[in-house]
Amino acid sequence: MVHTFYGKARADEALGPIFNGMIHDWDDHLATLSDFWSAVLLGTRRFSGMPMPKHVAMPNLSADLFERWLVLFTETTDALPNRALADAAQEMAKRMARSLWYGYQLSRDPSQPLTELRPA
């Protein structure tokens, strides 16, 4: 799931330049992302980190980019044979995208109202 999804994200017209501009060692990053999703979906303790500060530090993110990320994620997980795992992954992805988007907005201008992401 992780390799398939991030392969799509890297090749995506909107997301690819962002990912490829920020990630310089994809093997290492995919290992970290695999640990992250393993922790989130399977309850392993393979990941320890704080994604929010890294995402908040990125320039020029938008709701459209987070929504595109969710569309690609949903497409990828819809193809998984394990429906329960796919549903759990999609729910967690929605929560994470919303949280990261809120954090991003608050880091830019905490006095402005937060905008919502459109459902994928």
Descriptive overview:
The longest helix has 26 residues, at 83-108. This protein is mostly helical. It has helices spanning 2-11, 16-22, 26-42, 51-56, 63-78, 83-108. It contains 6 helices and no strands.
Short description:
This protein is mostly helical.
* Helix/strand class: mainly alpha
Work out the helicity level: 55-70%
List the uncertain runs: none
Tell me the series of helices and strands, N- to C-terminal.
HHHHHH
Radius of gyration: 14 Å
Q: What amount of the residues lies in strands? A: under 5%
Shape call = globular
How many helix segments? Answer: 6
Question: How many strands, which pairing sense, and closed or not: the largest β-sheet?
Answer: none
Q: Report the mean per-residue pLDDT as an integer.
A: 96
Termini gap: 18 Å
The counted number of beta strands is 0
Please write out the topology.
Layout: H1 2-11, H2 16-22, H3 26-42, H4 51-56, H5 63-78, H6 83-108
Helix pairs in contact: 1-2, 1-5, 5-6
Question: Which tags fit this structure?
Answer:
single chain, 120 residues, mainly alpha, 68% helix
